[in-house]
Task: inverse folding
């Protein structure tokens, strides 16, 4: 059996891949008259920390600091018109993709179109000063609560 740290790394990669697919795949949506934008979320945010807590197995509780440098960095840019960009640099290669978003209270909805099918994910978010927390909720697989931390550029 693989050590828990390796399993968590593989699992984390799968979760990040799923989460980033929301941001990395280019998409567009029609107008949504009910959409609103929290002006505090507008701007560019750099991914700085990934936290897994309250896991069923306490050994799975981890916090991973994300370092942003020229070779590896993840950013989200929220625009006031409801568009977003995911800027992902891995091993020095950068890809930028777009989608849309709206806010409603403490929830942010990210929307993309993949192969002519619209996908949306709703996350709970909070902003305190220059810090954005995206709460992915509790995972069914391991019971972990996943919260990503971003700092405003």
Result:
């Amino acid at each position: 059996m693989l050590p828990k740290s390796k399993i968590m790394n593989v699992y984390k990669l799968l979760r990040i891949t799923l989460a980033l697919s929301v941001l990395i795949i280019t998409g567009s949506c029609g107008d949504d008259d009910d959409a609103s934008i929290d002006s505090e979320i507008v701007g560019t945010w750099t991914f700085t920390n990934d936290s897994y807590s309250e896991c069923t197995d306490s050994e799975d509780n981890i916090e991973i600091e994300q370092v942003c440098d020229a070779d590896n960095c993840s950013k989200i840019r929220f625009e006031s018109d409801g568009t977003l960009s995911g800027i992902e640099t891995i091993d020095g290669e950068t890809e930028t993709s777009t989608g849309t978003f709206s806010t409603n209270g403490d929830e942010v909805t990210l929307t993309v179109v993949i192969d002519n099918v619209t996908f949306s994910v709703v996350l709970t978010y909070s902003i305190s000063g220059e810090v954005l927390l995206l709460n992915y909720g509790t995972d069914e697989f391991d019971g972990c609560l996943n919260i990503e931390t971003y700092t405003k550029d």
Remarks:
- The longest helix spans residues 4-24.
